[in-house]
Specification:
Elements (H helix, E strand, L loop, with lengths): L3 H15 L4 E6 L5 E2 L9 H4 L18 E7 L2 E6 L4 E5 L5 E4 L11 E8 L7 E8 L6 E5 L2 H8 L11 H9 L5 H6 L9 H11 L12 H20 L40 E5 L2 E5 L7
Parallel strand pairs: 2-9
Antiparallel strand pairs: 1-7, 3-4, 4-5, 5-9, 6-8, 7-8, 10-11
Helix pairs in contact: 1-7, 4-7, 6-7
The structure holds a DNA duplex (16 and 16 nucleotides).
Length: 296
DNA sequence: CTGGTCTCCTGATCGC
DNA sequence: TGCGATCAGGAGACCA
């Protein structure tokens, strides 16, 4: 469910709790939620369930490491330890990654991993509990032994959508004969856009979701790149969209859903022309658009 | 290589 | 109140 703005807000809200702190203990409650390098399961959920997933150790959850950075690329969040180990968190549709209020123990269902975060060196007693929960289990954790391994993994992602340039977007879309909506959802072309913000960016730039990506002319690509950046930046500023489950690293909801102009508004009037918005299915995802304002 | 389809999973909601 | 059908913010596997 979370897209780039929700992941970025999670990153920002967790930083004060995690940067410079040491993980005193880590526990994996569901082995198949963690993927190790060279894992034959390869991230395939079906294979993961066969129980062939590699044996996970606490060190793979960064136990005893000191957290030096919280990085993000697209919808992926990386916890980087001072010794170079990395744990990537993917939230999938229903994932949440948060710290509990001081002194509280986790009670929620579907918690798959938890970490005891030590206090500062003056008072190293456990500070807070960090939790990864994901009811639908479409998300997961992925361990990398070095930041070089993380960089190699992230090479498979397109440029980050929050700062995508018109020329980078043109390059990505030139390779896709698919509908533009489908191309925007492809993380290998551009990283971070999901179903909500794809619809919002297409609406703001006046591009029909079915317009062939590789046929878009430069002025429209410029407008689309600008719309993607603006829609995402606004959503980040509003703390992400909480449609139902989403909460940031402090369990706080966002308010960006109030700024959405098309997503989930099928049948309601277009904010620009007042005619009814329509929806259809593109790339297996419900797509809402204005048939008048968005042209092929 | 590309693109379309299927699949994984739980839970909320809606119509009967 | 219960129950089945439908839908949901994602993305990897598989196939033509």
């Amino acid at each position: 469910m979370p897209e780039l703005p929700e992941v970025e807000q999670t990153r920002r809200s967790l930083e004060p709790h995690l940067l410079g702190r040491t993980i005193a203990a880590a526990e994996l409650l569901r082995r198949d939620m963690l993927i190790l390098p060279n894992d034959p399961a390869g991230g395939n959920a079906r294979h993961r369930r066969t129980g062939r997933a590699a044996r996970a150790a606490p060190e793979h959850l960064l136990e005893s490491a000191t957290i030096s950075q919280m990085r993000r690329r697209g919808k992926q969040l990386a916890i980087v330890a001072a010794d170079g180990r990395v744990l990537v968190v993917q939230l999938g549709m229903s994932g949440q990654f948060f710290v509990l209020p001081r002194g509280e123990a986790p009670t929620a269902t579907h918690i798959h991993a938890r970490w005891a975060i030590a206090g500062r060196s003056r008072n190293p007693a456990p500070h807070r509990i960090l939790v990864f929960r994901d009811p639908r289990r479409f998300g997961g954790l992925r361990f990398f032994p070095t930041t070089a391994a993380l960089d190699a993994h992230w090479e498979s992602l397109g440029p980050d959508a929050l700062s995508i340039s018109a020329s980078d977007l043109a390059g990505a879309l030139s390779r896709a004969s698919r509908p533009t909506k489908a191309a925007l959802l492809d993380q290998g072309l551009i990283a971070g856009v999901g179903n909500i913000y794809a619809d919002e960016a297409l609406f703001r730039s006046g591009i029909h979701p079915l317009a062939r990506a590789s046929r878009l002319r430069a002025p429209r690509i410029d407008a689309l790149a600008e719309a993607i950046r603006a829609v995402l930046a606004q959503a980040v500023a509003l703390g992400g969209s909480t449609l139902r489950d989403y909460r940031d690293g402090s369990m706080s909801p966002g308010t960006a859903q109030t700024a959405l102009e098309v997503y989930s508004r099928s049948g309601q009037p277009c904010t620009r022309c007042r005619r009814a918005l329509r929806s259809m299915t593109v790339a297996q995802r419900t797509t809402t658009f204005c048939p008048t304002c968005q042209v092929r």
